[in-house]
């Protein structure tokens, strides 16, 4: 049976299992052998990483051709305008071409959100806001490039969901295993503690 693990990747953790420079990796949180990330999440981003030992499933999750929606909670610098949201919804042109249209809406700061370590840089003279952004493609640093293209630089980026899987109930560094196949039967979230 395929294994599928949902991890809330903390900020400043590499989305891989090894690193020759002593930086934190997925291996510091998930002590499960033979699973690999289905898609990447930048070191300076937080949130949901899906891991599996099933190659075809990994490809389906990460391949943009399958258009699996990924939803991000994005704290941006500046006032979130309807004009900026509409530009994101229509698709913006980046240096590697136009993006697919996205779902975008302004949201209040998500309740119960964990503090980031280290905290973001706050400038009292510059407002900030939050956007919920759903994409069906996964280019390198795409969310950050899209928000910058509409004049709203990203301050904090959290991937909340991949398809139907979400971070619900997972603190940073916690993971849970989903039982496949059949209905998603989540096991209790578990933090990883080194022996």
Give an overview in words:
With 195 residues, the chain is an alpha+beta fold. It folds into 2 domains: 1-65 and 163-195, Pseudouridine synthase I, catalytic domain, N-terminal subdomain (Alpha-Beta Plaits, 2-Layer Sandwich), CATH 3.30.70; 69-162, 2-Layer Sandwich (Alpha-Beta Plaits), CATH 3.30.70.1560. 13% of the residues lie in helices and 32% in strands. It has helices at 55-62, 82-90, 142-149; strands at 3-9, 36-37, 46-52, 70-77, 93-94, 97-98, 103-107, 128-135, 154-162, 165-166, 174-179, 185-186, 190-191. The longest helix is centred in the middle third of the chain and has 9 residues, at 82-90. Residues 182-189 and 191-195 have low confidence and may be disordered.
Q: What is the CATH architecture annotation of the largest domain?
A: 2-Layer Sandwich
The CATH topology label of the largest domain is Alpha-Beta Plaits
How do the helices and strands follow one another from N- to C-terminus?
A: EEEHEHEEEEHEEEEE
CATH class of the largest domain: Alpha Beta
Tally of DSSP helical segments: 3
Features:
195 residues, alpha+beta, Alpha-Beta Plaits, 2 domains, 11-stranded mixed β-sheet, two-stranded antiparallel sheet, 13% helix
